[in-house]
Amino acid sequence: MKKSASERLFDYGNIIFMMLLSVGTLYPLIYVLIASFSDPGFISQYRGLLLYPQGITLDAYKLVFMNPNITNAYGNTLFYVFVGTTFNIIMTSLGAYALSRRGVMWTSAIMFFIVFTMFFDGGLIPMYILVGNLGLLDTRWALIIPGAVSAFNLIIMRTAFQAVPYSLEESARIDGANDWTIMFRIVLPLSLPVMAVMVLFYGVSHWNSWFPAMIYLQDRTLLPLQLVLREILITNNTDSMLTAISSGDKAPIGETVKYATIIVSTVPILLLYPFLQKYFVKGVMIGAIKE
Questions:
Q1: For the CA atoms of 132, 134, 135, 140, what is the dihedral angle to 10 degrees?
Q2: Is the Cα torsion angle 212, 217, 223, 228 positive or negative in sign?
Q3: Fewest 10 Å CB contacts: which of 7, 35, 105, 173?
Q4: pLDDT tens for residues 46-63?
Q5: φ, ψ dihedrals at 221, nearest 5°
Q6: By the 8 A CB rule, do 155 and 115 touch?
């Protein structure tokens, strides 16, 4: 069908609006990236749009990677992301599979209590006492075990498992398969899109997490990257990186160090997302719609 002039004008307006919205969304990240490679003296005095690096230098990145707090926190965050996400996926899969099977007793009651936790929780103090009584305070597991299962992610995965045809399970049981075989050889392989979404959800959550570490951890050697980044950006604490810099140069280069730290802590997630993007919409829709 041929579009009228008003319809074409509307389409062009939408395109222009979305382009401006994309530029407005991306420019803060582009600015931080450009500023991190620019001359510190220029950045400290520059005002307005920054479209290309001014006096390209890698001094800020050298200071970031020379800081033992950053490198140690990076290793901690990778541990929390990989171990934590693996633990989350295993526990969520087990719970979702059990609650998605036919004939399991009290699934409705169990789901009610799971959904109830999405609206009400015990609060920070009871949680802190629980973590302390479990002996998890000031350990890596304080950031992994208490958040082992997300109620929202469990509901999505359970709905996805329910979408797997029951006839496949019946055929497998006739051939002698038990629940472990059905889960790992039938249900999970057929639910790869939603599994990829769960990896993304849990992985990003662990990567961005800083509040539990601030509450449960006292040992600075266990702190994740985001908590160290918070100290640098909010408390303006870059002194540990600038010990070898003269006092007159600390203020300007301190700004570019902040920008470089942001880029270092953001790039891994930006690189991971494109590989999972093709599963993202499909996985969410499978887990969110029940026929």
A1: -90
A2: positive
A3: 105
A4: 677 777 777 777 877 888
A5: -75, -10
A6: yes
Q: How far apart are CA 164 and CA 265, in angstroms?
A: 38
- Do 146 and 274 contact (CB within 8 A), yes or no? no
Enumerate domains of the chain plus CATH numbers: 1-57 (no CATH), 58-288 (1.10.3720.10)
Select from 78, 66, 57 the least CA-distant residue to 238.
66
Q: Which amino acid is at 69?
A: N
Rounded-to-integer distance, Cα 267 and Cα 98, Å: 37
Placement of tokens 């038990």 in the chain: 178
* DSSP E strand boundaries for the chain: none
Residue 2 per-residue DSSP state: P
35-48: pLDDT as tens digits:
888 877 776 666 77
Buried b (16+ CB within 10 A) or exposed e, 98-118: ebbbeeeeeeeeeeeebeeee
Pair 196, 276: CB distance under 8 Å: yes
Q: What is the pLDDT of residues 218-272, one digit of tens each?
A: 888 899 988 888 877 776 655 555 544 444 444 555 677 778 888 888 887 777 7
CA distance 191 to 81: 22
| DSSP state string for 31-81 | HHHHHHHS-HHHHHH--S---S-SS---HHHHHHHH-HHHHHHHHHHHHHH
The model's pLDDT over 183-212, given as tens digits with 9 standing for 90+, comes to 998 898 988 888 888 888 898 889 888 899
Q: Which residues contact 202 (CB under 8 A, 6 or more apart)?
A: 84, 85, 88, 89, 150, 153
